[in-house]
Amino acid sequence: MTAKSNLSRRNFLKNSAITGVAGASALTIGFSNKAKADAIAPQFSGLKTLKPSPIMLPSVVNVPPLGALVYNKAAFGPRPGDIDAFNALGADDATRLASWVDTQLNPTSTDTEVDARMSGFLNSGSAYDTINKTAAQLWTEHVRYTGANEYSTKSRPRYQMERLLILRGTYSQWQLRELLADFWFNHFNVKGNRDVIRSMLPEYDRQIRGHIFGNFYDMLLANSKTASMLFYLDNYRNSWPNPNENYAREVLELHTLGAIENYYGAVDPNTLGNNSKGQRTGYTEIDVFQFARALTGWSIADGTGGAADTGNFLFRSDQHYDDHAANPINVLDVSIGVDGGENDVTDVLSYLANHYGTARFIAWKLCTRLVGDNPPASLVSSTADEFYNRRNDANQLKEVYRHILLSPEFQTTWGTKVKRPLENIIASMRATDIDIDFRDDHSPSNSIFGRLDDTGQKPFNYDDPTGYPDEKALWSGTAPLVTSWRTITYFLNRSASTYDDPDTGILGGLRYFNLAQQSNTLIPSTVNRTPTQLVDTWMLHLRGYAYDANTRTQLITYVMNKSGATANQSIHDLTDTNNLSNSSTYQRVVYTLIGLIMMSPDAIRR
Amino acid sequence: MTNFNKINRRKFLKGAAASSLATAASLPNVSFAAGSANNYSDNILIFVFLRGGMDGLSLFTPMDGHPDRGHYEALRSNGTMIPSSQLLSVGQGFGLHPAAGPLQDLYQQNDLAIIRACGLPSYEVNRSHFEAQRYAELGTPGNRFTQTGWLTRHLSTATNYPAAIPLPVVVTESNVTFSLLREPSAVSLRYPSSFDFDTTNANNFNSDQEQALADIYSAGTNELDAAGEQAMAAVAIVEQVDFNAPPDNGAAYPVRADDPTRLTGFGEELQIMAQLIKQETGVRIGQCDRSGWDTHNNQRNLVVGEGFYDNVRDISEAFKAFFTDLDVLAPGGGTWAERTTMLVYSEFGRRAHDNADAGTDHGWANTSLVIGGGVNGGQQYGQWPGLAPADLFQGADLRGTVDYRNVWTEILLKRLHNNQIHQIFPGYPENEYNPLGVVSGSAIEPDFNNDPGLVYKDGFE
Hints:
The complex is a heterodimer. By secondary structure, chain A is mostly helical. Among the domains of chain A are: 3-40, no CATH class; 66-106, no CATH class; 357-412; 515-604, no CATH class. Chain A contains 29 helices and 6 strands. In chain A, β3 and β4 form a beta hairpin. By secondary structure, chain B is of the alpha/beta class. Chain B folds into 2 domains: 1-30 and 197-238, no CATH class; 35-195 and 249-455, 3-Layer(aba) Sandwich (Alkaline Phosphatase, subunit A), CATH 3.40.720. Chain B has helices at 2-5, 21-24, 56-59, 69-75, 101-108, 129-138, 150-157, 205-219, 223-238, 265-278, 307-325, 336-339, 404-414, 421-424, 452-455, and strands spanning 44-50, 60-62, 88-91, 94-96, 112-119, 169-171, 186-188, 255-256, 259-263, 285-290, 340-346, 366-372, 379-381, 402-403. Residues 1-40 and 452-461 of chain B have low confidence and may be disordered.
């Protein structure tokens, strides 16, 4: 073993000792007592509980200042100036947080920078022309389009939505909304490249966004009637007498109650008890079959069976279950003995949205996203109560978010999650204040999207109805890290180039954002352009606080090595720091340093 | 590691660190204790997960003459029935799917074993994809919160691996899998060509930047630091592998039905795995996933180039190509194929009866395959539970007769020489383990110690 690998080994042992994961010799799951052992032992029967993981990851790092924490956890990362603005919101952290959250929970219809970048393209008659099309337009002009460029025409709304997601993540002033839009899209995930969905994506996303700050039942019901979901999970063809169970199962398992705590598998539902609200405690396979029966005929007007070809929701009573008198539909506590048509479905959806199990599942997911993996049980419970108690309120979800974001747990939990590739990349774009417009059919945009595909987190591209996983352990692997870094280095390496398109006159692409010039603005005096000053200034500018000492030392060493300067010697002594060309030594020092700052562990934590 | 001496190495391998690839860039894995010279050290397990619930009843099907053929035809009356004349016989009244010709070849060469009615234990039947996948891969049916995968725990309890292996564990996916959850040495590698930093325009800054980043992560002490350090080491190793190396023995990995000039995604994954194995990166555990089996509608069992038919064609050609490609001599004797055992599993089978959409919904037991080195192939294992109405589980599913842990335990004992079953499958009752004889190898005594005090004893105290 070389010195390096011995070091690795030591580090790893330390890590193992903390997490108890990869133990030496006869040790795997490092529990220190029987209670923990029992907590993880297979449960062969009986109630399941949504318990926090027995292995809590260490709180390894110092919690950053609140403004930085907020912008890394409730937003896609800070842009220069964001944290200063946060600190100006009040005299103390509590006031600032309450103010920031209140503003973010009440977005206006204006999104200045996003609107400007989108309208620039609209005026040119190019990108983003499908985003505001009505459902009917999308159906007619894209789903049903035949002719030249058929594939790209059908897919055009999807391409534009992918690019708009990056644009919004990077530039939207309503960062919390964008984070939540991503959360809810993945909660109700559909695969963006499928037929129908690729064309209807703007409408599908619009239906979700309409309820982000509203009521969960409204969101669930609207979602159940979208062409995209009905196609994705096959319910458009769910018909009596041979029901297709796909959508029924996923509504129970993923959209409402969740399988984690509330699925009892192949047991007799009559053996289950009630929860604290007097509701039956969970669902079984029988409930899946029964709900699938209720959902027969819940479909789309797609030109078949005598229906119009509009893509609108259509209840097909001729395909709906009709044997209620002999065999009532029973889904948990809902019993339907008379054919209620559409009400068979809405009765069940309403019941599920108001079930305490749904409140706990959604609370757990939201806390996992906004606070961290294995969120404290007390916070999950109080959030579930907020969700349940406000179940009839028009602003139910808004108050649930507020409850989480103002909790002490949100403000003190750090590093139990990592940014996933998409979040890493957007955070880097925000930190560097990149000037980039995405549009479809555009080479630099396409390059970045090809790279995003490699990261495993291309927008709207997850196969399964679970949406992209959220667990830290699944995103800390080699491929997500390396492919994220590959994308970050890609655009930083091009930071000194221009991709405006002179041929078409269309403004767009990645514009010149001269980082060496920015550096000199931050450090006007040439004598102050030392390795130490460069590192400290850029760390603060990009991230809003100083990294741990180890990382800082390594960064300073890097700049020293590349410039030849000592730690506190001006680089200007050795190379012209006023040479701002894209190939100057100074330019390269600056953008590779920025790359390192954005690829460091402190930039990835959230 | 003579192979690597021929490959251009750069970046990390500077000065003293350049002594050999194996030591210079070995990944930080403490579990690879100094190995004995016995041949078990060299065995490789490739775990293939068919995600979505493969319809085992369409892969392995009763033929005319089998007492269940009539039940099968009645159950599959909505468009998913495969005529007996099109099935590829494997004896005992069963046939493989018409697109599984390469699997029939492997079976007839005694390289493929078929496990019938395999799945989760009866007390934890689960028809959710995502729960059933976790239960299987975490090795703990009924518990989805287990923090490590079954292969993670195999790796951390195995005592027979060499001290330093460059790439002991590779997943050809974008994310690490639940089987390898929190396995520190697992490298997820889907696209080798993008497994590097962007070099354009950065010139020599690129390698120095990589080195600096490696130093930053090496200096840290927590889980994320370990992951980053490993990522940088993996970059240095992977870029030395020749991914353009052609397959051996004319092995033909499957090409896309809609574009015969390109390999299928799964074909690519298995070819990458074979390249990593043959170029001696040291892969001992590999995982390759193949999704697309959730056939709720329009299953297309018999449509060439589409649906289930093409899925079966894809995996069948890929499996055969993989073992054809590996059938070359390995250092130390024998072929790579002889050292490599492949386990093929899907989270559940589908309903015995099809639905009105010529599709099938979620069920329980399924067909599983074991292929390659040490496999007692050309045989079928496990009791066939029958398709008569009274035989079906809840009147709907093929009933499970083989707990998946039974097969996986046998592979661990006989092929990977790890007997720490109580750690890998905690809670698996010893009296439920009945080896079927799927693989050969001198069996070691399994350790089923179920005393939680011992199972979960914290060695770091």
